[in-house]
Structure formats: C-alpha cells, structure tokens
Known about the structure:
By secondary structure, this protein is α/β, with parallel strands linked by helices. It has one domain: 3-Layer(aba) Sandwich (Rossmann fold). It contains 10 helices and 5 strands, in the order E-H-E-H-H-H-E-H-E-H-H-H-H-E-H. The protein has helices spanning 14-25, 32-41, 45-54, 62-75, 91-102, 118-132, 135-138, 140-154, 156-162, 176-188; strands spanning 2-7, 28-31, 81-85, 110-115, 167-171. The chain has a 5-stranded parallel sheet with strand order 2-3-1-4-5, with helices on both faces. Helix 2 (32-41) packs across helix 3 (45-54), helix 4 (62-75) runs parallel beside helix 5 (91-102) and helix 6 (118-132) packs across helix 8. The site of adenosine monophosphate (AMP) has 17 residues, from helix 2 and helix 3.
Amino acid sequence: MLNLVLFGPPGAGKGxxxxxxxxxxxxxxxxxxxxxxxxxxxxxxxxxxxxKLMDQGILVPxxxxxxxxxxxxxxxxxxxxxxxxxxxxxxAQAEALDSLLESKSSSITKMVALEVEHDELKKRxxxxxxxxxxxxxxxxxxxxxxxxxxxxxxxxxxxxxKAQSKFEAINGIGxxxxxxxxxxxxxxx
Length: 189
Ligand code: AMP
C-alpha cells in the first residue's frame, strides 16, 4: 500500500499534484478541505459549524476531521493506498492517523512537502480566488490568517514525520510536470 501525506502551505499546489498522483498510482484522494466543502454544500450541521471557522481561515477542531478520515478509511477498505491532502494539519491529527492506520495493519509511507515561499503563496491564492468561488481565497486578510495557522499549528507536523524518517521536501516552484517528476522520483528512491 502506498499512503502519502501531501504537505505544504495553502496554495503550494497540493490539489493539482494530488490529481496527477491519483491517476498514476490509483490512489484514493482524501482531502479534508474538499470533504468539508462537500458538507457545506449539502447543508449538514457539521458543514454549517465548519463554515464559520473556514470563512475566517481558522482550522476546524481535530476531532471533526479525524472522524471524517476514519469514516473514509472504513469506506475504502480495498484501496491501493491513499493520498492525504490537507490532513494531518496538527500533531494530534498525525498521531490519530498513525493509530487509525495501525489498527488496519497499515502505515504512512512518506510525507511529501511542497515548499513555496510566503509572497508567492499569497499571489497564487488571490489568483485562485478569482475563479475558484472559495470565499477563503478571495480576501488577503483571510489568506494571511490561513498562512499563520499553517506556520503555528501545521508546520510542526513536518517534524513528526522527520522523526520517523518519512519526510521528503520538494521545491514547489516550477512547472506542474517538473514538480510531479520530483515527487515521483522521491517515491521510487
Ligand atoms: P483546504 O482546502 O485544505 O485549504 O482547507 C480549507 C479550510 O478547511 C481550512 O482553512 C480549514 O479551516 C479547514 N480544514 C481543512 N482541512 C483541515 C484539517 N485537516 N484540520 C483542520 N481544519 C481543516
């Protein structure tokens, strides 16, 4: 099983690279952001609560996203593997993911971290906001808040995987194909 954590700040290109990895390796894509947006468009109670935080660029509580991932793992028992995109975003989420996978006799293969500097991220997110329809992409203050959430709560997750020797950094600047090739090369090494 190939279980990848695709890591990086908002706007690093995780969604774009996930799509390419899924089709090359036949993996199941688990994006907590997409699952939450789906809950919002279905008007569920969970979606309505999460929206209040997402619209401010704040992370939703760990137990909410851990529960969602647990359900998705159970619903995809025959998968070749998973790409975790936008999850885990806190050390508590990373620990919970390890326990969930361990209970299924599985584990994370690698964390691939896309590295892009701060100013470039802001530019990309504002550009994406013009046609993505995502309210959290359209406002520079919310974008800044999301980057700050990343730096304070999410960046430490890299240390968690470094301690397990599973961390691989990839330069997130370049063409989509160049970045994809770099990711694939780390997977065969
Ligand atoms: P994303 O699509 O990954 O940029 O996520 C959009 C928003 O959903 C984030 O700003 C958070 O409010 C929320 N979110 C997505 N994934 C998580 C997660 N793993 N933990 C907490 N909040 C999350």
